[in-house]
């Protein structure tokens, strides 16, 4: 695997590929990156001393004399990450990185043009190379995917690389890949999630079942954790991945890891689908009370006229309306009570005119201006307060509403790109600077379930979180920070200051790296969950062409310790995933299934035995 980039995402991605998937990685960074400390994950998953030796060795090497190519490299001992410096990802640099022999290349520079230019060069050097590009322009990304895939097909004559993994192009953006993890963190406190079939899934550790209490298997039992008494010499049994039912029953004293859906069970925002929703959306609460008072006044006058004159109630109501609009004859010669009621009805008609005028102006203003943004309803609680409706915030908002989670947004810019999305989704918005007193209170922060601070300013996010914690110390907070080390320092400080509250500080590169790594492994790979020192992969696989699956039942296709079919993709009017597959269901060639597998098991299933890792 070759990773080329100029910021923290490149380091994160290299560490994810090495630490989770066990791949050999070459990391290509500009020379200016030599002085930049790699993210915490790199220092944690690869020996820090090892990386220090790599950087030192790279500093002692000289270039090749070509100022434009300017490539220096250093190789880490086997099992590590090869670090290489290049001024730009041109043909010389890509060739030096070994792109012609690589399985996949990730181009994660902050500049779209740099990534596209390098992708075109890499496709020419290796038509069977899997490409993963970081692009902010999604529409352009779709065209680039088609162009590079067509170039690969014309050059190789085969859209796959002959080993079961596709040699295609995948274009991702930070916002799209980070949004699911941010939404899941706000709900459950963990960003390690898997997105498939419109669902968010997570791996949850469950303690051993107690006496008379059965363990909840969730959607599937993924692993049995190491026994608690295996710390002695030679007793390190390790986790049991993808156990069969008998192993699960026999391992009653061992904790389990199960797959479950990330869901929200709290209150929902009123959707405005009750009686006369158009009425409540067009008119303010004060105006609605005024109209209700006028109606009550008319009814009271009609009843009084009926009691005074003794006429039919309907005629009394009709005459009251005529008096109200001043189109009836004067009550000359009538009783004093009738005359007084006519005067009162005319006065009520005069009072009705400004109310009707206010209703017309308010209705027109609702359609014309930003006053159509909903305000947080009274009594709201258990919601998520989302700060910032920029690129990241808009994606997070959409994901939260897809999960039916009530959200209140706070945005300081009345022209923010996400306001149109909030208006379309009928999400309450508070317009104001979050650092000003009273803004978070207007968003009902004291009754919120979580706070998501995803503005583009680190200081604003941090200030909002600190203020929210002052209002409610036990509030779950998730803040987006640009720098990995800064995010780690903030997390540790907030966790120490509020040990009983859930705190998560994440950089976008931290959240986006798993999705980029999964794309580098192939389009089949949906994600991965680490289980102690091992890892489980999740993949979407076509049954056709796999004799281990085709024509077999779900029970027969299950191979303990290697792979397990979890769900089948459904097509038709209601596409999705069917998770309740019986063991007797026969897998057809037209089926596409989601399965969990070990690295070795997936390599065997997809025909990559030569590169299988334990």
What would you note in describing this structure?
The chain has 614 residues and is an alpha/beta fold. The chain is 40% helix and 19% strand. The strands form four sheets. A seven-stranded mixed β-sheet has the order 3-4-2-1-5-6-7, sandwiched between helices. Helix 10 (285-309) packs across helix 11 and helix 10 packs antiparallel against helix 12 (336-368). The longest helix has 33 residues, at 336-368. The two termini are 18 Å apart. Residues 35-79, 159-165, 230-235, 270-278, 367-371 and 609-614 have low confidence and may be disordered.
Q: Calculate the mean pLDDT score and round it.
A: 77
Taking pLDDT < 50 over at least 5 consecutive residues as the criterion, the unreliable ranges are: 35-79, 159-165, 230-235, 270-278, 367-371, 609-614
The biggest sheet amounts to:
7 strands, mixed
Structural class based on helices, strands and sheet pairing:
alpha/beta
Radius of gyration: 32 Å
Helix content: 25-40%
Strand order of the largest sheet: 3-4-2-1-5-6-7
Report the count of strand segments.
23
